[in-house]
Write a structure and sequence with these properties.
The protein has 134 residues and is α/β, with parallel strands linked by helices. It is built from 5 helices and 4 strands, in the order αβαβαβαβα. It has a 4-stranded parallel β-sheet, with helices on one face. The longest helix is centred in the C-terminal third of the chain and has 16 residues.
Length: 134
């Protein structure tokens, strides 16, 4: 992914706030947000994925602008409560763009600890009614 082009496209749709937990699969994104972005982009590294969702929700409530949350798929469990209790279309319909690094992706060599979560990542997204594209 060409990060600067990706960020530029997101800014075109009024998305300029990013919250998340750095992931080695998305190190270019993390580095860009932390060290190379312009002053128009808000970026906060959070202590866990649930906090990132909470901050994105708070940002939307104060600005009426959606945010992006980046995370590794191993952090999906940490977002279940804030996604289902607050952001869900059936609750408050708060838009959040999730950028998820897929460790243990099927048919991809990865460390053993990532393989279980990798196999069920899509099932988790479907269970949470999260629309996604790969």
């Amino acid at each position: 992914m060409e990060v600067n082009k990706f960020i530029k496209e997101l800014k075109k749709i009024n998305l300029d706030s990013f919250f998340g937990v750095p992931d080695s699969l998305m190190s270019d994104l993390s580095k860009y947000l932390e060290f190379e972005n312009d002053e128009e982009v808000k970026h906060v590294i959070t202590q866990n994925e649930g906090s990132a969702i909470g901050m994105a929700i708070g940002n939307f409530l104060s600005t009426k602008k959606p945010s992006a949350v980046y995370l590794q798929n191993s952090g999906l469990g940490n977002i279940v409560n804030p996604i289902t209790s607050l952001a869900s279309e059936k609750v408050f319909s708060i838009p959040v763009l999730l950028i998820i690094g897929w460790r243990g992706e099927p048919n991809t060599k990865d460390e053993p600890q990532h393989n279980v979560k990798g196999k069920i990542t899509e099932k988790i997204l479907k269970l949470l009614n999260i629309k996604y594209t790969i």
